[in-house]
Design goal:
The structure is a single chain. The chain is of the alpha/beta class and about 300 residues long. The protein is built from twelve helices and seven strands. It has a seven-stranded mixed beta sheet, with helices on both faces. The C terminus is likely disordered.
């Protein structure tokens, strides 16, 4: 985790959106911009979580805090975000203080396996790719143990459409040591063994390809700044990473899945129309993320 995510905040600000969302955006239309698509992603996830005021929410792999702060702002929920990156932790805490939410949102440097207690809602965005197939049973068992009896969880992660595979050796060495994008056939058996209800699965197909296109173009526009921060070799590596990742989602079977999970059979409505209704309400009611005075406002996923 630290190998990748402990790069400086200033570097990620070069190409991410204003909320520092470093995971797949959600594009309602082809001409939606990156900032708007990342806001749409957060609304989409919030709608699936069925949030209500005062709920206890856990964000596993909270990144720079954007998702946790968003969920707190829209409902008044008490949110705990956890990460393994010291750099992300410092930024997330700074952002919570700047937004006046330090008493409502708590960020901790902690492994999900160390968490105790019960939560009404759990979100994990862009973190599951670092868990590893041998640990899936333990991950979902822990998820179950952390969920209230009527709790709901939303898992947002990269997957592959063509069955189990292996991580590209170059990506494994230089970008995501230990990272792996699973097939659903590797994930769902672990969900079943944990005794969880898989209440909804959505496959986001080209959304990450478009997200990476935006990142690649924005990185190229500010490449000299990145070079000044690191060096030419780093920039060439990062260009290859962004281009190669975009190709994998556009042509080589990679996708993103969102899996809604519950302990109780009746924890979520029987039909899905509540999701669109909630997104519409949130789009009209929720302000954009607060700026922090730096280049952007400032998640896993």
């Amino acid at each position: 985790m630290a190998h990748h995510y402990d790069l400086s905040r200033s570097f990620f600000e070069l190409f991410l959106d204003r909320d520092l969302q470093y995971s797949c955006a959600y594009f309602p239309t082809p001409d939606t911009g990156l900032d708007e698509a990342q806001e749409a992603k957060k609304r989409h996830i919030a709608a699936k979580l069925l949030l209500r005021p005062g709920m206890r929410v856990l964000d596993i792999g909270c990144g720079w805090g954007g998702m946790a702060l968003y969920l707190a702002r829209i409902t008044g929920a008490q949110v705990t975000g956890i990460t393994l990156s010291r750099e992300q932790l410092a930024v997330a805490r700074e952002r919570a203080a700047h937004a006046g939410l330090a008493g409502q949102v708590r960020f901790e440097l902690r492994d999900y396996r160390q968490m105790e207690g019960r939560f009404d809602r759990i979100a994990s965005v862009g973190m599951f790719e670092h868990v590893g197939v041998p640990h899936y049973p333990a991950f979902f068992a822990k998820l179950r143990d952390l969920m209230a009896e009527d709790g709901v969880a939303l898992l947002h992660a990269i997957g592959r459409s063509d069955g189990p595979g292996s991580t590209n050796p170059w990506f494994r060495k230089y970008i995501f040591p230990g990272g792996y994008s699973p097939a659903l056939s590797e994930v769902i058996p672990a969900v079943e063994k944990a005794g969880l209800w898989n209440t909804d699965v959505e496959i986001l197909r080209l959304h990450y390809a478009e997200t990476l296109r935006h990142w690649r173009e924005r990185f190229a526009a500010r490449r000299e700044e990145a070079r000044a921060m690191y060096d030419e070799r780093f920039c060439r590596m990062w260009e290859f990473y962004l281009a190669g990742a975009e190709i994998s989602f556009r042509y080589q079977g990679h996708m993103v899945f969102q899996m809604q999970l519950a302990r109780s059979l009746g924890a979520v409505p029987l039909v899905r129309d509540y999701m669109q209704r909630t997104e519409t309400v949130l789009a009209e009611a929720v302000p954009p993320p607060l700026r922090t005075g730096r280049n952007v406002g400032a998640n896993n996923a």
